[in-house]
Amino acid sequence: MPTVLIIDDNAAVAIALDVLFSLHDIGALRASSPEEGLDILAREPVDLVIQDMNFTLDTTSGEEGVELFREIRKRHPDLPVILLTAWTHLDAAVELIKAGAADYLSKPWNDERLLMTVTNLIELGQANRALSQRLQRERRAKRELEQNFDLRGLVWQDPATERVLNLACQVARADVPVLITGPNGTGKERIAEIIQANSQVAGGPFVVLNCGALPSELIEAELFGADAGAYTGASKAREGKFEAADGGTLFLDEIGNLPLAGQMKLLRVLETGRFERLGSNRERQVKVRVISATNADLGAMIRAGTFREDLFYRLNVIELRLPPLAARPGDILPLAISFLRGKTLHPSAEAALLAHAWPGNVRELKNVMARASLLAQGDVIKAPDLGLPVTVAQTLDAEPDRDAIVQALARAGGVVAQASNELGLSRQALYRRMERLGIARPT
């Protein structure tokens, strides 16, 4: 059951509020002075405070309430506080709202409105605490990963990336092939490097072959090597990637582009560790950990007859699915900041980055930040400097207009906390905009 602390020297007020809350399954603690209220806060878990503004007989200045509020804010910065007084001082109310007060209500209060405000604030507080706890767990898990494994300086923050990293580090020590799937530009090679760095062959070579960057007639020579004269232009013997990776890891990117003849030979190497160079009859033996990656639908390729099913199952002992950047939004700003060249991001740029779909994934983000760093005037990068679609940059930097605020307040029944949450603003920011636009504070 949520608990509200009522700090008011008027026993009748405290009892009335206690009864009101008890009828709606909200517990109440009562204090008749600021000192007693602060003492209770030090000992008891409380979800919200309702405090009077005057405690000395015949005092109406509100100074005692201001002092109490500031002390509560100092000791419990995240605790919502509702100010309640029979003496309304608008200037004081505005200042305290700016300082973080949740709301400012006059006596006598409206039960329905007070209950709605209290309920919304409690729910918001519970949601914030749950979010804070989740973020703490995520930060702890991130620290443990960074302390226990070599992540090759990878920049990340999103839980989706954490899940991939956890699995990558878990399987790194096992001597089994790994298939990394995901769209182009998501960082599959970085995951392969992390697997290598935490494997039993971490001290061995890490060799990369992009199967999609070579003509099909040259891929086999790149993989297995070739003797002199094995093909036109082969004037001398050459070492293949498997030989170069002996005792380490071979990363085969875009494995779906490997021709069928090469697939058959690759399957044999995976099963036996033996192969022959092109143009040679001498069998060679290697010990290589193979990690492959693709953005292709290998299942569809198997059905079409362009990829061997037996090779797929041999490569796919462990599959790591790396989501597109848009599906791990927590990574966007940390990555963007890591790509900056001595400059900082304006909030409008941060909002534009978060709203963009990133079809080119991390590779696109890196290019956008490199261009913005070079072209931006000054040390702060703003939304237009990113060169993203104009509609994104323009709409994200816009403030809600008068109609949007009025409608949000109407939907929230006049509860500012609820309206500010809907508009994506802090309560203080909403109050400032209401004041600037001449919107009356709900009563």
From TrEMBL:
InterPro entries assigned: AAA+_ATPase, AAA_lid_NorR, CheY-like_superfamily, Homeodomain-like_sf, HTH_Fis, P-loop_NTPase, Sig_transdc_resp-reg_receiver, Sigma_54_int
Keywords: ATP-binding, DNA-binding, Nucleotide-binding, Phosphoprotein, Transcription, Transcription regulation
GO biological process: phosphorelay signal transduction system; regulation of DNA-templated transcription
Keyword Ligase part of the UniProt annotation: no
Domain Sigma-54 factor interaction: 154-374
PROSITE patterns: RESPONSE_REGULATORY, SIGMA54_INTERACT_2, SIGMA54_INTERACT_3, SIGMA54_INTERACT_4
4-aspartylphosphate modified-residue sites: D52
Pfam families in the record: AAA_lid_14 (PF25601), HTH_8 (PF02954), Response_reg (PF00072), Sigma54_activat (PF00158)
A GO molecular-function annotation: sequence-specific DNA binding
Superkingdom of the source species: Bacteria
Domain Response regulatory: 3-122
Gene3D superfamilies from the UniProt entry: 1.10.8.60, 3.40.50.2300, Homeodomain-like, P-loop containing nucleotide triphosphate hydrolases
Name of the protein described by the UniProt record: DNA-binding transcriptional response regulator, NtrC family, contains REC, AAA-type ATPase, and a Fis-type DNA-binding domains
Organism: Massilia yuzhufengensis
